[in-house]
């Protein structure tokens, strides 16, 4: 197998790093600092590349528009140095980020780097040690069985709005979400969303009512009188 090529020409003292935006991978991928990368990508990338990517991810988190990497200083900070030139361990690690499409050239002395990476492909998984292949298969089974973050957020918002429609105060409704085992941060966000939506719909209904004494309620106006208070022992099912 040929050695992966560097995305820049030597000699070079500094490298300009900017984020590689990919809407698909950014939405469903894994943070470069995540346990998934350390557990499964590590066997393909090698420890030097994974450690380098962690440093780059931290840099991009602190400087979202990009930052400058001092190559020698960075190499020394992860225990490698620049010995060996293009064939040395540090620059090989840089080259491997491009080989696995985690970075790409972005002009002279510059690269773009992903902040999230995809789940391993079937071919990539087949290159893992057998034990890791089995662990990855189990991880995929669990991931398919668990609701996504977006699904949990949508459900929490529906529950929060239903509680407000029943006449609960925001504080009472948020406490009820906690009793239903909704994560506190998710419950708080859901309640803020539901309160804003209720206030918006109520405001629209008031404007219409003020324009005509016989105006019908606006579509979507909260119909509290028609709702039945749910049993509090367990959360109600999702709204249709």
SS content category = alpha+beta
Report low-confidence residues grouped into runs of 5 or more.
212-231
**Global mean pLDDT:** 84
Report the order of strands and helices: EHEHHEHHEEEHHHHH
By DSSP (H or I, 4+ residues per run), the number of helices equals 10
Rg (CA only): 26 Å
In terms of DSSP E residues, the strand content is 5-15%
Total beta strand runs: 6
**First-to-last CA distance:** 54 Å
Sequence of strands across the biggest β-sheet: 3-1-5-4
The coarse overall form would be elongated
Describe this structure in words.
By secondary structure, the chain is an alpha+beta fold. About 8% of the residues have low confidence. The strands form two sheets. A four-stranded mixed β-sheet has the order 3-1-5-4. A two-stranded antiparallel sheet has the order 2-6.
Describe the structure concisely:
It is built from ten helices and six strands; from the N terminus they run E-H-E-H-H-E-H-H-E-E-E-H-H-H-H-H. It is of the alpha+beta class and 240 residues long. The longest helix is centred in the C-terminal third of the chain and has 28 residues, at 184-211.
């Amino acid at each position: 197998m040929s050695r992966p090529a560097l995305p820049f020409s030597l000699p070079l003292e500094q490298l300009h790093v900017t984020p590689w935006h990919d809407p698909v991978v950014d939405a469903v991928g894994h943070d470069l600092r995540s346990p998934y990368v350390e557990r499964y990508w590590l066997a393909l990338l090698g420890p030097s590349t994974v450690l380098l990517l962690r440093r780059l991810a931290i840099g991009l988190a602190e400087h979202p528009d990009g930052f400058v990497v001092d190559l020698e200083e960075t190499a020394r900070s992860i225990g490698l140095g620049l010995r060996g030139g293009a064939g040395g361990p540090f620059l090989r690690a840089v080259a491997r980020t491009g080989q696995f499409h985690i970075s790409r050239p972005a002009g002279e002395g510059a690269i773009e780097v992903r902040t999230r990476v995809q789940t391993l492909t079937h071919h990539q998984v087949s290159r893992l040690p057998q034990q890791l292949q089995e662990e990855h298969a189990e991880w995929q089974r669990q991931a398919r069985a668990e609701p996504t973050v977006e699904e949990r957020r949508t459900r929490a918002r529906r529950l929060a709005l239903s509680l407000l429609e029943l006449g609960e105060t925001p504080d009472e409704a948020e406490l009820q979400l906690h009793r239903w085992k909704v994560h506190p941060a998710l419950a708080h966000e859901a309640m803020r969303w539901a309160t804003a939506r209720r206030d918006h719909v109520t405001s629209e209904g008031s404007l219409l009512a003020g324009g005509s004494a016989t105006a019908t309620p606006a579509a979507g106006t909260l119909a509290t009188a028609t709702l039945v208070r749910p049993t509090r022992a367990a959360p109600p099912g999702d709204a249709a």
